[in-house]
């Protein structure tokens, strides 16, 4: 194929389509679970460590074919973590250390998961819808 592309290939994805694809991907919840675990495993903190098992389960459910449902659960739990982590204040100089950067990445990923998961859940198709 030299340089010819079909009109479908030339069409760019809209922002909604990109967010829906992000929400249906099993990788972001697993990455989020890894970042949360990195922050709260040592010293162990029980409340934040409730999030990784749920996020890992959503990745598993996504791989089993429940894309819309797992996107909704992942988006909801990401939003809940974002709400809880946003309440905790951090001094300005600690934001630029290793833990501060990981916390910022985690909160940014939570926001992306919340938006993408919400859109994927809202626009997603289920097998019951096909009947």
UniProtKB/TrEMBL annotation:
Protein keywords: Membrane, Transmembrane, Transmembrane helix
Q: Which domain of life is it from?
A: Eukaryota
Q: Where are the transmembrane segments?
A: 96-121
What is the recorded name of this protein? Altered inheritance of mitochondria protein 19
Naturally occurring in which organism (per UniProt): Aspergillus avenaceus
């Amino acid at each position: 194929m030299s340089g010819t592309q079909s009109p479908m290939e030339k069409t760019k994805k809209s922002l909604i389509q990109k967010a829906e694809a992000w929400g249906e991907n099993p990788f972001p919840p697993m990455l989020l679970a890894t970042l949360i675990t990195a922050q709260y495993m040592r010293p162990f903190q029980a409340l934040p460590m409730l999030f990784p098992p749920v996020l890992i389960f959503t990745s598993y459910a996504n791989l089993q074919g429940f894309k819309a449902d797992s996107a909704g659960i992942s988006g909801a739990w990401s939003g809940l973590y974002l709400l809880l982590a946003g309440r905790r204040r951090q001094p300005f100089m600690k934001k630029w250390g290793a833990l501060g950067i990981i916390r910022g990445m985690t909160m940014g990923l939570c926001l992306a998961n919340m938006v993408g998961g919400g859109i994927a859940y809202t626009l997603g198709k289920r097998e019951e819808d096909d009947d």
